[in-house]
């Protein structure tokens, strides 16, 4: 079994920590500068926003692909896809700058920050996709109902593992 991770860009990490810091300062100001129902309401609302931000920003910090008996793609909390070898119709490498039909068009549940994309997207060709990439060159794995567009930190290692365990990868 092999695991392949995607590291979030530093800018996204700094943004996440900056927003979290802002929310903590807001809670402290509300706790010590307001009174009564205003304090309670402010703390509840800000606490709920902070919990949502932590859930959406820090939980998906380790998107990964696990290659074993099956292929598993984890992009928490947005998507988790498991594909048995028989479900994989094909695999090929594309750069979506050149192959526009595989370019993400709409984010339906995920994170998009610069070139970093993790989660569920709709592609230019209208197909749904789960994307885990930090650039435009991706390994496309075709399933019956969706595509997986993957480019972890060890891209070449993932391509080699999929080639070895599942289907021949074309377009390398």
Question: Top keywords for this entry?
Answer:
7-stranded mixed sheet, 2 domains, 35% strand, 4-stranded antiparallel sheet, alpha+beta
Can you describe this structure?
This protein is an alpha+beta fold and 172 residues long. The chain folds into two domains: 7-60; 62-170, no CATH class. The chain is 33% helix and 35% strand. The strands form two sheets. Strands 6-7-8-10-9-5-11 form a seven-stranded mixed beta sheet. A four-stranded antiparallel beta sheet has the order 1-2-3-4, covered by helices on one side.
Largest sheet: 7 strands, mixed
Shape: elongated
**Structural class, please?**
alpha+beta
Determine the mean pLDDT. Answer: 88
Oligomer: single chain
Q: How many helical elements? A: 3
Order of helices and strands: EHHEEEEEEEEEHE
Proportion in helices: 25-40%
How many domain regions? Answer: 2
Distance between the termini: 23 Å
Number of strands: 11
User: Into which percentage range does the β-strand content fall?
Assistant: 35-45%
Provide a quick synopsis of the model.
With 172 residues, the chain is an alpha+beta fold. It has helices at 10-33, 36-57, 155-165; strands at 2-5, 64-67, 71-75, 79-83, 90-95, 104-113, 116-123, 128-133, 137-142, 147-151, 169-170.
